[in-house]
Structure formats: C-alpha cells, structure tokens
Specification:
Elements lengths: L3 E4 L2 E2 L5 H12 L4 E9 L4 E8 L1 H18 L15 E10 L3 H18 L4 E5 L10 H5 L2 H8 L21 E5 L4 E7 L4 H11 L4 E2 L20 E2 L6 E8 L4 E8 L7 H14 L4 E7 L4 H14 L8 H12 L9 H4 L1 H5 L12 H9 L7 H24 L8 H36 L6 H42 L5 H26 L5 H33 L1
C-alpha cells in the first residue's frame, strides 16, 4: 500500500485572502501533494489548511508553506480570538494509510530539524513526536501565547527542540508533531457571554475546571500535595474546549478539539453541550466544522439521530449525511457541502465510478452504444442492486408503518443490511467494466520480445481471473439480498408484498446473468483447476437463487389470493 499522510497546518492569518493564497500556492507547487481544504476564519484570524500526499512530498510542501508564512505574516501585528504563538502556529502530520504513527513521528522530527535550521524558527515537537510527556500537549506548549514567549523561551524547561533559543518577533515559533485525526468543531450558542460559554466548556472538556473552596468561581484554588491545582473532570473524554465570542457571527461558541472521535464522536459532543447549555438557560443553535471530517463521523451521527426518532437507519449514505447536517445544525452559519468537507469524498477517484454517476437515460444509452462495456456483467450488478433496493424499501416502509411502532428496530436492522448490499452491488456496476478494461489494457501490452510476451501473458491471466471474480461476487451479494427480500415478503408491509416479489425476480436475474460472465471469462484461464472450481461454485449459487426465487414468489402469490 502506498504511504499517505495528511498535514493540517494552522496559519495565523484568516482575513487577507491574498496572503493565504500565496501560502497555499507553495503547497500546490509540490508534485505528489493534493490540497484538500482551505478554511479561513475572520474572527480567529487563522486559516486551517488540509493537504495529503506521500510523506516526502507532504514534508516538502509543509516546509515551503511555513517558509512563505514566515515571510508574509508579522506576528507583532496579529490579533485574533484563537490562541497562537507563531505565523505557522501548529503543523501536525497525520497517518492516513500504509504508514504507522511512529514512522509519521519520524517525518515530523525531520521537518522540525529543517525548519529550525534553515528558517531559524524555534520548533517544539508535540504529541507522538515528543518524547517528554511534560511538553507533548499543544495547549501546554502554547500557554502564554506569542506575547509571553519572549520570556518563556528563555526558561531551561522550554528550550525549543530545534532552532534558536531566541523568539523571533515576526515569525514567532511553531509546533510540529504527529497525531491521530482530530476534528475541530465549534458549537454555536444563543448568547454573547464568553463567561457562560466558558462555563459550559469547563463542564464538558476532559480536564474540566479548577476545584475551589466554597464559591466555585471566586473561591480559593484547591492544591494537591505537590502544589498543583486540583481539577474537577468534565463529562467528555478526549475533548478540549474553550468558550469565545465570534464578532463575525455575533454569538459565543464552544470551540472544541475532538482528539479521539472513537471515544467521543461529534454527535455525542453536540448532545452533551446541548444538555449542559440548557442547564444554564442557554440554547444551542447549531454548529460549525473547521476543516475536514471523516465520512464515518457523519454517518454515525445520522444513524444516532434517526435512532433517537425511532426511525429506520437503513437509508442511503446521502440521506444519513443530510440528517446529520440538519441535526447538528452544520449549515446554520453557511452552506455545508459534503463533497468539500468529507475527506473520503475529496480523495475519491471518480474516474473509476463513471457509470454509476450517469443518469438512467445516459446509462441506458451507453449500454446500447457500440462500445463493448458496459455489458451483461455491469447490467447484472445493477439489476442486483435494484433487487436489494426493493427489499430495503419494503423494510423501511414496514419500519414506518402506523401501528407497527414496536417493530421499527427489527425492520431497521433488515433495511441496514439491504442498504449495505445495495451499495456494494452498485459499486460492482463500474467494477465489472473496469475489469473488462483491464483485460483490454493487458492485450495492448508490447510483445516484441520473449520477456514482453511473458509479462503480457501474465497480465492477461491476472486480468481475466479478476474479471471472473467480479461477477462471482455479484452472485454472492445478490443471493444475500434474497434473504432480506424473503423476510420482507413474509413479515413486511402487506401492501408492498409485490415489491418484494419484483426484488426476487431482480436478484435471481442478477445471479443468472453474472453466472454467464463467470463462465465465459473462466474459459480464458490457463489455471483449469481454478476455472472448473469457480464455475462449479457458480452453478451451485445459481441453483440456490432459483430455489429462493420460487419460495419468495410462492409467498407473494399466496398473499395475493
């Protein structure tokens, strides 16, 4: 697997778009790097940039961006709501695929060495890149901010990891490290009071608030035996939070960093802030995402809010995202565009999903054209997807049927299974055509020498094997959908029993159609034992599908009498 890391530098400029553009231009100059998102904030006077690529390319792009920021941003003139200590305030590297956290931390150290040496900027390491636990927390490192660092940097315990022990007036210092994926998330309140916003932030953040004797606000701070303040923990683990006022919006916010969304996901943080705000007579009006978010976070949120409504969660990915956005109020302050904010969508290679992005009319016309693909394999996959979709539809209708409220969860579970199978089968529509194209590419390879011929033959065989496995997978998925379709014919909304019947016809046709492709592609395999085995298994699956179809249609016909 190719190594892929993400970099999310925060630059202390959020108002001058020309300066921001010059910085991001440096990133886009580097081959092997893809700029995903640029998120400027006027009130915070800070821009969060997200880009991904190979580790070497990302580190080069990060260095050039840090260099440009140090040339363009004068920290002595900087004002903003967000804590900061440098022109490039923080520059985390995040492992995405094919690379460990430890390896990512080594790249962060190398970047830190170069920034300190070549740019003469003090660098502090944090999170996984920092060995000293006393100084691996960003908020601890940044305490005192830009104004306080002229003295802080002189303290022996705060000597930079790299670079000079003098605090540069213009560029300030920067923090470089390696960490897990972090979601920066702000929750909007119907108040302008920073004090009240901070009170809610202290209620929920993991570190909580300082314990005081008597009055919780003005009382004397309670100290432990080592002379350190004692804290009352907040209610949410892996959450950092502060309250602030955003003049741009005219409201106070709870600004949060969700450092482990597996521990505290976005929807739990949102609901907990709603609860604590209500206890203080304040209402949450919406929320704001800073930067990007993983797809799973929004899907989990959509499922969470549908379950609270006792509604079926077996709906499309698009619908789950819509529910999440509306429930979290992510569109309160401006439009929320999933294609620009979800990291998987930004990384998606749409060239491999050409067919499923077409309209029904265009897909039919493409099929009818003189091109050999899409052919029977892609059509079989699509028929299978429609069969699974019909079973899912009956499950959703049954889940929401008046008078069946006590059974909503049962049907929701069936709908979830159907939605997953439908999604997988839809992907196979393009995958079957992609498999065919691989065969054509292999046949087009050079054959001038014996070595060329050997490589060409191997490529043809590999592509043919794959083109056999794709329709076989369509067979397996379509048969799995028949379990759902049969259950819906038996126990689902009786008004939709014929929909289940049509779903069975689709699923059976998908199995039989895909089997034809298995057989014809297996004929081109030199590995005859493998070919005979997959054809034999395919015949068994076809028989199973035909038997299941008969059973389902018998149920449907009995209910129509």
């Amino acid at each position: 697997m190719n190594q892929l890391i993400e970099c999310v530098p925060n630059f202390s400029e959020g108002r001058d778009l020309q300066i921001i553009k010059q910085i991001t231009d440096e990133i886009e100059k580097i081959d092997g790097v893809r700029l995903l998102n640029v998120d400027p904030g006027k009130a915070t006077n800070r821009t969060v940039v997200t880009f991904v690529g190979s580790p070497e390319a990302v580190c080069e792009a990060a260095f050039m961006a840090i260099k440009k920021a140090s040339e363009l941003i004068d920290m002595s003139k900087h004002k903003g709501e967000h804590p900061r200590m440098g022109a490039t305030d923080v520059c985390p590297l995040i492992p995405i695929s094919g690379i460990s956290m430890q390896e990512t931390a080594e790249f962060a150290k190398k970047l830190g060495v170069r920034v300190g040496k070549e740019l003469n900027i003090p660098v502090y390491l944090y999170e996984a890149a920092q060995k000293d636990p006393a100084r691996n927390n960003l908020s601890v490192i940044r305490a005192g901010e830009y104004e306080g660092f002229f003295k802080k940097i002189k303290l022996p315990e705060w000597k930079p990891d790299f670079g000079p022990v003098e605090f540069p007036t213009k560029s300030g210092a920067t923090v470089i490290g390696a960490r897990d994926f972090l979601v920066a998330y702000n929750i909007n309140l119907n108040t302008t009071s920073v004090r009240r916003a901070n009170a809610i932030a202290f209620d929920v953040r993991e570190t909580g608030r300082v314990k005081r004797e008597g009055n919780p606000v003005t009382g004397k701070t309670v100290m432990d035996k080592n002379g350190n303040p004692v804290y009352i923990p907040g209610t949410l683990k892996s959450v950092k939070a502060i309250g602030w006022y955003i003049e741009e919006y005219g409201v106070a916010q709870i600004s949060m960093n969700l450092t482990n969304i597996n521990v505290t996901p976005v929807h739990i943080a949102f609901d907990e802030v709603c609860k604590k705000a209500e206890e203080r007579g304040i209402r949450v009006t919406g929320s704001e995402l800073v930067g990007l978010i993983p797809l799973k976070s929004l899907l989990d949120a959509g499922i969470y809010f549908l379950k609270k409504q006792k509604r079926s969660t077996g709906v499309s990915e698009k619908e789950l995202i819509k529910i999440a956005v509306k429930s979290l109020g992510l569109d309160e302050l401006g439009p929320f565009k999933p294609e620009e904010r979800i990291i998987e969508y930004l990384l998606k290679d749409n060239s491999k999903a050409r067919l499923i992005r077409m309209s029904l009319q265009d897909f039919a016309s493409e099929t009818a054209s003189e091109s050999a693909a899409p052919g029977g394999g892609s059509i079989s996959a699509y028929i299978g997807a429609l069969g699974a979709a019909l079973g899912t539809m009956v499950a959703n209708l049954s889940s929401h049927k008046p008078g069946w409220d006590e059974r909503w969860e049962e049907f929701s579970q069936w709908a979830e299974k159907g939605q997953l199978l439908q999604s997988q089968l839809v992907k196979m529509v393009d995958e079957d055509t992609n498999a065919f194209n691989k065969i054509m590419t292999a046949f087009g390879m050079p054959k001038a020498t014996d070595e060329d011929k050997k490589a060409r033959t191997e490529a043809i065989q590999d592509a043919t094997k794959y083109a056999t496995e794709v329709p076989f997978k369509v067979m397996e998925l379509s048969i799995q959908s028949m379990e759902i379709i049969k259950a819906m014919a038996e126990i689902g909304n009786p008004n939709s029993v014929t929909d289940a019947g049509v779903g069975a016809l689709c699923a059976r046709s998908a199995v039989m159609g895909a089997y034809l492709n298995v057989r014809i592609n297996a004929k081109g395999l030199q590995d005859k034992a493998y070919a005979e085995n997959i054809v034999k298994k395919g015949a068994e699956l076809q028989s199973t599908a035909q038997h299941a179809e008969t059973e389902i249609l018998d149920i449907v016909n009995s209910k129509l009498k």
